[in-house]
Design brief:
The complex is a heterodimer. Chain A is α+β, with helices and mostly antiparallel strands. Chain A contains 6 helices and 10 strands. Chain A has helices at residues 2-23, 193-205, 209-212, 276-279, 283-288, 290-293, and strands at residues 83-85, 101-103, 118-120, 125-132, 145-154, 213-228, 235-237, 241-245, 256-261, 272-273. In chain A, strands 1, 2, 3, 4, 5, 6, 7, 8, 9 and 10 form a 10-stranded antiparallel beta sheet that branches. The longest helix of chain A has 22 residues, at 2-23. In chain B, 29% of the residues are buried. The radius of gyration of chain B is 25 Å and the shape is elongated. In chain B, the strands form 2 sheets. Chain B has a 4-stranded mixed beta sheet with strand order 4-1-7-8. By secondary structure, chain B is an alpha+beta fold. Chain B contains 2 helices and 8 strands, in the order H-E-E-E-E-E-E-E-E-H. Chain B has a domain at 17-117: Sandwich (Immunoglobulin-like), CATH 2.60.40.1120. The chains are: A alpha+beta, B alpha+beta. At the A-B interface, helix 1 and strand 1 of A face strand 5, strand 6, strand 7 and helix 2 of B.
Chain lengths: 295, 171
């Protein structure tokens, strides 16, 4: 009798990990065979893992290291009447927490349908981690067509590729082809968006992007898109179009779901944070935060 | 003395109200609902555990399709200074969430279609099945109980049973 009970307990302990897995919805059924996948876009074999959730006690909290700034759409930037659901909004679906912010039509401004409006990159510099376009777009765990951007920051390391075998003298130097483009800027906070784009492009063109910029681990996800205009591993800059707004995935109206996750999202631990505080900021605020990130 | 009174008056004005919500109510033909319509504003008080308790802030009645609700300066706001809540319209089902930075005047258009407040929204996606913290608010989401909780609850009972059997066998 004693042995039998001990055996049952042992079996229960063995089944414990499976119970946890099922309970958290980790088992996904996804049939990818024979689907039309646009060139350059990642298909998500085995199903997309959705960004993890956050903690509602952090509502309204500003995270100084959050590298995302500004408004992620091209219509009515800064118009809070376009927000139809906020982060941790209790008036969301019962039983679910809204780990993002929804941007939709503004009836005040007579924008009845925002379908097709551009979705914009909110990182000063970023790299496309995932760009999932699927047919039908209901796949991807309800996220529809979505783009994930990981924000990058300056490495701040001395660079020497002008004279690598002779002196190893670090920049800055007067030669604009030497070192990182940012090293040549006296006051980065004064750069226009156009100048910023040119600066990043310079590092890409010289082939030194990865020496000048490093990933922060912060990830922004833009969901329910109509189309995706970037591909995985593309370098994107602030204000660049990532795709267009639609109603794909588990969605009941045209809107953008914008979500920011802290570092660790890769391992399923990078919790979502409230995007509202940094949405109230601007591109210039992002530039002013650069010196802090360059430490 | 006059200066003192002026400052006092300005101070009282500032303390009374620092923001307002202008609500435009529209019908499905996108025309203003001009007859008298009651509009109610609720704002959430965010508790330290992340739960949200709604508080009624004011009501106004539309004239020419719009009306304004003044928000008192002591209205609840989050740690970043945002006011978060929802708007209800008498005679219409549903709510429209609102959020805006304090100090700003919020203008919002609300469309009534089929007796409901039209609200663009999204369905949940996998990964959102995380419960909000327990709250006294009637609008809070229900806590989900997974199989893990079941196992954790049953395991001590089983262990206690084993212990009893072992004692009996020993005795």
């Amino acid at each position: 009798m004693f042995k039998r009970i001990a055996f049952i307990i042992l079996m229960l302990l063995l089944l414990l990990p499976l119970c946890i897995g099922v309970g958290q919805g980790n088992i996904m059924l996804f049939l990818a065979a024979g689907k039309d996948v646009p060139e350059g876009h990642a298909y998500l074999p085995g199903g997309a893992s959705a960004p993890p959730g956050g903690v509602c006690s952090n509502i309204g909290q500003r995270f100084p290291d959050n590298p995302f700034h500004g408004w992620p759409t091209d219509f009515h930037p800064g118009d809070w009447s376009t927000i139809s659901a906020w982060w941790c909004d209790p008036d969301y679906f019962p039983g679910y927490t809204h780990w993002g912010i929804d941007i939709a039509a503004s009836y005040r401004a007579n924008d009845w349908d925002v379908e097709g409006h551009a979705v914009l990159c909110t990182a000063l510099v970023g790299r496309i981690r995932r760009a999932a376009f699927s047919v039908p777009p209901e796949w991807n765990s309800g996220m529809g067509n979505f783009v994930e951007v990981e924000a990058y920051e300056p490495t701040g390391r001395p660079t020497w590729w002008c004279t690598p075998s002779v002196t190893m003298i670090p920049t800055p130097t007067s030669d604009p082809t030497c070192g990182c483009a940012l090293d040549h800027v006296v006051d980065p906070t004064q750069l226009t968006e156009e100048e910023w784009r040119a600066l990043v492009q310079n590092d890409i063109d010289t082939g030194h992007f990865d020496e000048c910029w490093q990933p922060t681990g912060w990830v922004a996800t833009y969901m329910h898109l109509q189309d995706i205009t970037v591909a995985v591993d593309d370098i994107v800059v602030y204000g660049e179009t990532l795709g267009h707004i639609d109603n794909t995935g588990n969605s009941s109206g045209t809107h953008l779901h914008y979500q920011i996750n802290m570092p660790g999202a890769d391992s399923g631990k990078g919790a979502a944070i409230d995007p509202a505080p940094t949405m109230a900021e601007t591109y210039s605020d992002g530039l002013r935060a650069l010196p802090r990130r360059q430490r | 003395m006059k200066v003192l009174l002026l400052w006092l008056g300005l101070g009282l004005m500032a303390a009374g109200s620092d923001t307002a919500v202008l609500v435009k109510v529209l019908d499905v033909q996108r025309q203003p609902v001009v007859q008298d319509v009651e509009v109610h504003l609720w704002l959430y008080r965010i508790m330290p555990d992340g739960s949200a308790v709604p508080e009624w802030e004011g009501t106004c009645v539309t004239q020419q399709g719009e009306c304004e609700i003044s928000v008192p300066s002591d209205a609840p706001r989050d740690q970043a200074g945002f006011l978060r809540g929802y708007i209800e319209v008498s005679g219409a089902e549903g709510r429209r969430s609102v959020i805006w930075p304090s100090g700003q005047r919020m203008e919002i258009g609300i469309m009534i279609a089929g007796g409901r407040i039209k609200r663009p929204s999204c369905g949940p996606y996998d990964g959102q099945n995380v419960p909000v913290p327990a709250t006294s608010s009637s609008t809070s989401a229900a806590r989900r109980v997974g199989p893990l909780y079941f196992v954790i609850a049953v395991l001590p009972i089983l262990l206690a049973g084993v212990y009893v059997l072992w004692i009996r066998k020993k005795g």
